């Protein structure tokens, strides 16, 4: 547990290991998947086809935000680039996407989502 907290403290934008619906468009292919983790600067997910590093992608996330005890799904679209692609032993590939074209308001939405799950003292800096 201590290691996990240290990891969060060192990151400017901590990763949250949550499954979020994700659509990716790359090189004429559309992937519908879910995140394995997400941060304000990127996402990690599983896809069926190999997507090489440095591939530009369009990303669409659906984030369930809770405000005033009410759930509201927020759709977010941004551009990204694949920074890592790894073979998955059970088939397919795990890819890491860096959000290279994201607005401050979109980053704020991701921040709000992540902060719902972090202890108050570890909230994402905005």
Could you give the topology of this structure?
Layout: H1 2-10, E1 21-26, E2 29-39, E3 42-47, E4 56-67, E5 70-87, E6 93-101, H2 104-115
Short note summarizing the structure:
The chain is an alpha+beta fold. It contains two helices and six strands.
Q: How is this structure best described in words?
A:
The protein is 17% helix and 49% strand. The protein has 126 residues and is an alpha+beta fold. The protein has a single domain, classed as Thrombin, subunit H, CATH 2.40.10. Strands 1-2-3-6-5-4 form a 6-stranded antiparallel beta barrel. The longest helix has 12 residues, at 104-115. The two termini are 25 Å apart.
Give short descriptive properties of this protein.
Thrombin, subunit H, 126 residues, alpha+beta, disordered N terminus, globular, single chain, six-stranded antiparallel barrel
Strand element count: 6
| Integer-rounded radius of gyration | 15 Å
Number of contiguous helices: 2
CATH superfamily: predicted glycosyltransferase like domains
* Largest sheet report: 6 strands, antiparallel, barrel
| Overall mean confidence score, pLDDT | 86
- Helix coverage percent: 10-25%
Question: What's the CATH C level?
Answer: Mainly Beta
- Named CATH architecture: Beta Barrel
């Amino acid at each position: 547990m201590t290691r996990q907290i240290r990891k969060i403290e060192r990151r400017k934008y901590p990763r949250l290991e949550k499954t979020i619906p994700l659509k990716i468009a790359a090189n004429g292919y559309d992937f519908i998947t879910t995140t394995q983790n997400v941060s304000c600067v990127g996402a990690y997910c599983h896809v069926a086809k190999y997507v090489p590093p440095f591939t530009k992608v369009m990303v669409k996330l659906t984030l369930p935000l809770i405000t005033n005890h009410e759930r509201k799904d927020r759709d977010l679209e941004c551009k990204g680039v694949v920074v890592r692609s790894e073979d998955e032993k059970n088939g397919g590939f795990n890819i890491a996407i860096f959000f290279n074209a994201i607005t401050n308001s979109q980053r704020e939405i991701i921040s709000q989502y992540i902060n719902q799950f972090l202890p108050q003292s570890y909230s994402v800096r905005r």
